[in-house]
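Why predict the complex rather than its parts? Because the way molecules touch one another can change local conformation, and only a joint prediction can capture that. The input here totals 615 residues.
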Amino acid sequence: MTAPEAVPVDAALHLAVSQFLFREARLLDEHRYEEWLALFTEDLSYEMPMTLTRERAESARAHDYDMTYFSENADSLRMRIDRLRTDYAWAEDPPTRTRHLLSNLEVYPTDDPDEFTTHAAFVVYANRGSLPNWEQYVGTRQDTVVRQGDAWKVRRRLLLLDQALLGTNSISIFL
Amino acid sequence: MSAASFPDLSSLVRPDEGEVSRRIFVDPEIHAQELERIFATSWLFVAHASEIPAAGDYVTRVSGTDPVIVTRTEDDQIRVFHNSCRHRGMQVCRVDRGNTSHFRCPYHGWTYKNSGKLIGVPTQKVAYGSLDRTRLGLIEPAHVRVLHGLVFINWAPEAPSLEEYLGDMLWYLELLFARTELGTETLGTPQRALARMNWKLGADNFSGDGYHVAMTHRHALELGLFGGGTMLGHTISCEGGHTVRIQNFPAQAPLPHHLALPDEVLASMHRTLQPAQIDAIDTITVMHGNVFPNFSFVDAIFTTTGDPDIPPVSFQNIRLWQPTGPNQTELWSWVTVAKETPAWWREASLTTFVRTHGISGTFDQDDIEVWTNISAANQGPLAQRQTFNYEIGLRNLVPDPDWAGPGTAYAADYNEANQRAFYRTWLKTMQAGHLAGAQA
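Output of the joint prediction:
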């Protein structure tokens, strides 16, 4: 977690990181999963802990990092993508139409000059079949992104949902 | 309810002919009667005792569609209360979990000790003169029973004991929840999701649907994630509509024995379970089942989770199919391990669950896709005049006399005897069971 008094990066770096994250979101919306995974480091972590409704005094424990909706590494994300490429990923064939929206982006430096932490709000709209309405995933995202020469990669993604009871049947997409 | 408006259930549900009407998965009146006749009279799972280890710990849950609080009192008793003030019905607890000695209603301030006793009524003397607080404690189920860490409740005073209710099924529950000397505990909190499906579709599948694996979960067979699809195993139906499916790996394609359990657990298991029970889980790939009506479990071994550094592990998963309407079910999903389990194995087990059988799991995505689309296709009047087919094994299978465990066992992995047993109990309970005051 970045301290609130941390000074954000300059405009050029902010633009570079935001363009990287927007492109990453677009690859998901275009179902280009292999290219999407290539934007992560091999030592990636991708976590979405359970959200709990707690009393205000217990707000610090409003997420359960033991039980998660996602607890992924590079191999398991690859397995999930391989699954989508079989003819038997019924929940995603026909594929869900998604729109990954990322907003309120803050980018902060770390001790490593090539590593940055980001905070962002996300809304993911998901639509299937002929359903007239969208399922929504809403929350905050904390990423660690790294600069590798001219390229950017995501090393760590933490997704904190604003919903304690998931309203979407299951989770068959990436966030 | 008039007899004319309520359908003749025995014409809709004919398990002995392998036919179950699709109407029972849709009809709002039948659903309302399920809540009254099944959920208000059956033993219902609400929590695992390890979720509330300390005095004052509580979790909030749902019984049928009624909110309840499950708490541990100062004298180490697990108590369950209707989460609703006796004065005007406000929920006295509005969070998922916490620790407290008392619950205070935000409406008028009635305050209850976590033993359910009403201990505070603001301005009682002025407002009421006299008030018998002893008859206004939080409402409790008629029975609360903690068995092998599983907290079950029953609202019917005349209900049989949980042990009687489970009968032969207890032997199979012991395979998971009384496997070791220390018993099990949960890892983290339960996952929850709302799915647009009837609750019985989940219970039906977990009862013993070995037949769907090779198609619904074919991705896993293609990717070599799962040793399934062997067609070797047993389906076992117990009195009371409780069911188990045990699938075995073939000798020529062995997996680790005894669910790849770690040495610490195996050592304790050999001191705890009977030899026949240890044999029953020797060569299994997956074991799952359902305690009538809506408590399911699965214990499965996976050859890989996509991570070559993690050797095969298994996981224990408890499911609750919580009805929130004829076409909506709240899915609850816990992971449990034997308390003897070392840290590395716990982590691998939990991760395997999340990636395969959690809400985002590669198996569950496809199960839920199927169940929600069945519910969508059930809505029309045409569909509701039709039946589902449950004829597998109806004419070609006889019980296996060599099976060492209790219940009626068939040496077949593809068999719908368990589903027929589930619906037989559903029919019997709908026809007979109701709380005092309910109209037949």
